[in-house]
Write a structure and sequence with these properties.
This protein is mainly alpha-helical and 168 residues long. 67% of the residues lie in helices and 0% in strands. Helix 2 packs antiparallel against helix 3, helix 2 runs antiparallel to helix 4 and helix 4 packs antiparallel against helix 5. The two termini are 23 Å apart.
């Protein structure tokens, strides 16, 4: 099962250095609530749920993590094209404020996990939509808009999972 929108990802070809856009996009890469946090949180949760015998739920979360990893790759490549190395910091090109795994929500309740994930996906969508209002480049806007579509798929899957968990 693939948990991403059924749309191609836009090309990054031709995107030029742009410090303003770099500052706008960077937090989504490795900021406190960015794609790196989402990926690590979904991996943690998948491992934990699998160890509790919730294998289907664990598989769903690892599939979401795989899509989030692809977002990390896309955003890292975008950051490089915008003029900074893809260092895990919310403020490239400066080597400060490095990412910390303390950003991950380590809750152990399955319902609590999914509730945190839903909040995270809603926050991601809102932050990406805010980026769209600030970014001038049509190419970069297309990349961000495409990532939003994946986040909407994740949100729908998580809301369905929450309903399933609460019904038990």
């Amino acid at each position: 099962m693939s948990l991403k929108a059924d749309l191609p990802y836009p090309s990054l070809e031709g995107i030029q250095e742009d410090c303003k856009t770099l500052r706008i996009v960077s937090p989504a890469y490795a900021g406190r609530e960015g794609e790196l946090t989402a990926t690590l949180q979904y991996v943690y949760q998948s491992i934990y749920l699998d160890s509790c015998g919730l294998h289907d739920e664990a598989k769903l979360l690892i599939e979401i993590a795989i899509t989030e990893m692809h977002h990390i790759e896309i955003l890292g490549s975008l950051i490089t094209r915008l003029g900074a190395p893809p260092v895990f910091t919310a403020c490239p090109p400066y080597p400060v404020g490095f990412y910390s795994a303390s950003c991950v929500n380590y809750v152990k309740s399955p319902v609590g996990m999914v509730q945190a994930d839903i909040r995270g996906e809603k926050c991601a969508i809102a932050e990406y939509e805010q980026m769209l209002r600030l970014i001038c480049s049509p190419q970069v806007r297309a990349v961000i808009a495409r990532i939003i579509e994946d986040e909407k798929v994740h949100l729908a899957a998580l809301e369905a999972l929450l309903r399933q968990l609460q019904a038990c």
